[in-house]
């Protein structure tokens, strides 16, 4: 069926400024890492993407290797862009990345060389069917390539019209500071940092958030639900239709051990008292810091997405709730 976007799509989403840039991003963005390859039905993918845009999600996050197989998420998203979202291109922020292994031989193994980044960006544009992406990322720091080479490649990607903005993912505070200084000198300031951040992985509180603030960069967090662990879905076992149940390399059933389940269960009770689901509370908890621009959720169905989006507008945490959450996370 043909798609027309909901008239009221901008009525409830919250948009946050990305660092000191001119760009606003939705507080909740949608990521296409796991659920937009060959393992999930195309009809579900289309329904999730339509629903996301209908509820004000303007930002879709991709990378060269999202699938499976590698490249497939960009191909699938490109198809839906062409059929459904074409009239809305200027309402969308589409990102891609390069940094991990992608094609055979020394130039496709990832990292931050000029050869790899520019070729990979061109491949992504082709798969997506786009002239440019809105944000292009160096997906990870490469200790074997001069940072100047990586930053010059990002600068080139912007100046050649392949991307409007550039960012970095998972760089530590020191690497971030260096990268930001080089990029600023080149005249292409880094827009954004994309780190993992959730209740169970708080490494960015130890310096990175402050660094990004000093550099004027926004922060967009990946795996805000710890890939689904921060929901109630694994409390009673591993459902077959779940990331851990479907044999994902990134989420092994043994990662969901008894200690994790105990913590999830305690957090689930705190969430209930707040009239939120655990997933919603986990998102609200990240967004409590206004320096976080956005969280990227990875919903695999429309009901999941709808429920995640209902985290917006939740009541702020009371001091008691904060203390209770901290004590669960400290155990
Ligand atoms: P999440 O932590 O949001 O995990 C997503 C999973 O959580 C879903 O697949 C689903 O699991 C489950 N889930 C989501 N909502 C609900 C709900 N309401 N109820 C129950 N379960 C729910 O994020 P991801 O790990 O998927 O990462 C999000 C995005 O971040 C990626 O798509 C990608 O864009 C980006 N990313 C970036 C990385 C980087 O290196 N820069 C690395 C990893 C991710 P199920 O599938 O089992 O239904």
3D architecture notes:
This protein has 331 residues and is of the alpha/beta class. It contains 10 helices and 10 strands. It has an 8-stranded parallel barrel with strand order 3-4-5-6-7-8-9-10, surrounded by 5 helices. The protein has a two-stranded antiparallel sheet with strand order 1-2. The mean pLDDT is 97. NADPH dihydro-nicotinamide-adenine-dinucleotide phosphate binds next to strand 10 and helix 9.
Q: Tell me the strand order in the biggest sheet.
A: 3-4-5-6-7-8-9-10
Question: Whole-number radius of gyration?
Answer: 19 Å
Secondary-structure element sequence?
EEEHEHEHEHEHEHEHHEHH
Query: Helical region count?
Result: 10
Distinct small molecules bound, one entry per kind = NADPH dihydro-nicotinamide-adenine-dinucleotide phosphate
Sum up the overall morphology in one term.
globular
State the oligomer.
single chain
Tell me the fraction of residues in β-strands, as a range: 5-15%
Give the overall average pLDDT. 97
Q: Structural class, please? A: alpha/beta
Unreliable runs, pLDDT <50, ≥5 residues?
none
Largest sheet: 8 strands, parallel, barrel
Question: Percent of residues in helical segments?
Answer: 25-40%
End-to-end separation in angstroms reads 51 Å
Q: What is the tally of beta strands? A: 10
State the gist of this model.
With 331 residues, the chain is of the alpha/beta class. The chain has helices at 42-54, 72-85, 114-128, 147-159, 173-186, 208-215, 258-273, 278-287, 302-309, 319-330; strands at 15-17, 24-26, 28-31, 59-61, 93-98, 133-138, 163-169, 192-194, 218-221, 294-297.
